[in-house]
Write a structure and sequence with these properties.
Layout: E1 21-24, E2 34-37, E3 50-53, E4 57-60, H1 67-75, E5 81-83, H2 93-100, E6 103-107, E7 119-122, E8 125-127, E9 132-136, E10 145-149, E11 155-159, E12 163-164, E13 170-171, H3 181-194, E14 202-205, H4 221-230
Parallel strand pairs: 4-5, 5-6, 6-7, 11-14
Antiparallel strand pairs: 1-2, 2-3, 3-4, 8-9, 9-10, 10-11, 12-13
Helix pairs in contact: 3-4
Length: 232
């Protein structure tokens, strides 16, 4: 499988502060959860954070730490879990934990990057709620992981493990800082085996969302994973 195209440069331009937006509305389709996305965060090189309101509130990666985002999270009932999908998504994690008293979940190989904080490290996977669990998908970084949420037909929050491309595809992106390229590809195979078209409908990437051309997420996520896995 040859997918070693260079990663596009992240958009690091300062964006005006905007309210998080609903990308999957549980109230309108009788689901028990709602999913929001934040504007790209300059502190994490254009990374995109997400927020799931369900049994408990789960923040996926660090959004920009400003008054708008802080007030929004407070209005939603705060944050119970902050899940970090890779070391580059850490951002203002200390301030978030101090404000909300939340648990921080990160794969065990990168927990050392958070000294002085209360951290829950995990190995292969961790069940947060009846609908949400993390999956270790190393490659991009040693502790790279994805979060799977079973609502809405299945959503994979992929961090930087899988990213959209300018051509509209979804791929792992090999860069000079990639920890282990072959392991990253093997973890795509693992995801293909674990899910199906019925259990994985959407993919929410942790960066490069400009390539989605205004779409809030990537549909037919399992088909995209299968196509990656079939490439020579």
């Amino acid at each position: 499988m040859s997918l070693s195209q260079p990663a596009p440069e992240p958009n690091q331009r300062q964006q005006p502060d905007k309210l998080p937006k609903v990308i999957l509305d549980g109230q309108s389709v009788a689901h028990s959860s709602t999913v929001f996305s934040f504007s790209p965060n300059r502190d994490t090189l254009g990374g995109t954070a997400y927020f799931i309101v369900e049994e408990v509130n789960i923040l996926i990666d660090c959004p920009a730490w400003n008054d708008i985002n802080q007030h929004f999270l407070q209005q939603q009932g705060g944050v119970q879990w902050l899940v970090l999908t890779h070391r580059g998504a850490i951002g203002k994690v200390k301030e978030i934990q101090q404000t909300f008293g939340c648990n921080i979940l990160i794969q065990e190989q990168e927990a050392y990057l958070l000294p002085g904080l209360t951290v829950t490290p995990f190995h292969q996977r961790f069940q947060l709620t009846s609908q949400s669990r993390t999956i270790w998908t190393s490659g991009h970084s040693p502790g790279s992981s994805c979060l799977y949420h079973s609502g809405f037909g299945g959503i994979l929050f992929s961090g930087r493990h899988l990213l959209p491309t300018p051509q509209g595809a979804v791929m792992p992106i090999k860069t000079a800082k990639t920890f282990h390229w072959r392991r990253q590809l093997q973890n795509i195979e693992k995801l293909v085996k674990e899910f199906s078209p019925e259990t994985l409908r959407y993919l929410c990437p942790g960066a490069n969302i400009g390539f989605l051309r205004g779409k809030p997420h990537i549909d037919q996520a399992y088909q995209h994973l299968s196509e990656i896995n079939q490439q020579p």
